[in-house]
Amino acid sequence: MVQPISALRDTDHAEMYALMERHFLAMSPAGFAADLAEKSAIILLREASSNQLVGFSTITQLESYDEHGPISAIFSGDTIVDRAHWGSPRLAQLWGRYVFARAAQMQPQRVYWFLICSGYKTYRFLPLFFREFYPHHAAPTPPSMQALMDRLAYLKFPEEYCAHQGIVRLQRATPLRPEVAPLTSARQRDPHIAFFARANPGHHAGDELVCLAELSHANLSAAGRRMLREGEGA
Fold it and tell me: What are the residue ranges spanned by the domains of the chain?
């Protein structure tokens, strides 16, 4: 289900906060509410049998420019899926259907996915669904893309973006709990996960790696095209 933030009920807020608190440290009701108020839409994932909230992702849109002209960026805020449902593709399908529908409405303007990652599982969505994204272990970030990443990061986090590191260091950081998706040596055999660990060495303290991918059908991987087809058929 995708809906405006304004349509959330008090019970939704309570369920969302409880889900975040189970997975992240240093959560506070006031900080969570302030972050939520900055967003425009939310994707809610509920279990069919119980209607229990098992995941969500908040979304807002930023306007900027690249070397060709005006662009829009869809920013992913708080995103979480309960560990019992990590194998489900449903949140990714709902997200894909929503953001690509938004991108289609804004054609011919270019639209990007702008996200920050304090956990490797979020970063891992980039190589899974997109052919080209940054930063990437196998290629340096082109200067034009780096300039856009810097522009968007300063726009969204003017006091907290460390451009020389490509990191957002939030004043109210909420790192993942140590037992949630730890970055083991076995996991770092994946070159994308190993790169994430190098690029964001402070991830355990809640540092967020700034990332960018163009939201275009041409930039989708085979898995990304499949995710979008399944999302559209849902």
Answer: 2-232
Range of weakest confidence among 37-41, 65-69, 124-128, 229-233: 229-233
Distance CA 31, CA 97 (A): 29
- Round to whole Å and give the CA distance between 133 and 136: 7
Question: Half-sphere exposure (CA, 13 Å, Cβ side) for 64?
Answer: 22
- Residues in contact with 18: Cβ distance below 8 Å, sequence separation at least 6, in sequence order: none
Six token digits for residue 71: 């662009």
Task: Tell me the sheet residues that pair with 113.
Answer: 74, 213
198 in Cβ contact with 191 (< 8 Å): no
The number of C-alpha atoms within 13 Å of 69 and in the hemisphere containing its C-beta is 4
Apex 61 CA angle, 56 and 67, nearest 5 = 135
**Terminal C-alpha separation, the chain:** 11
pLDDT at 162: 97
Q: Which CATH superfamily is domain 2-232 in?
A: Gcn5-related N-acetyltransferase (GNAT) (3.40.630.30)
Q: In terms of pTM, does the model score above 0.85?
A: yes
> Cβ neighbours of residue 51 under 8 Å, at least 6 residues apart?
none
pLDDT at 181: 79
Tell me the average pLDDT across 64-73.
94
Q: Which of 122, 224, 100 is nearest to 180 (CA)?
A: 122
The Cα 183–Cα 196 span in angstroms is 10
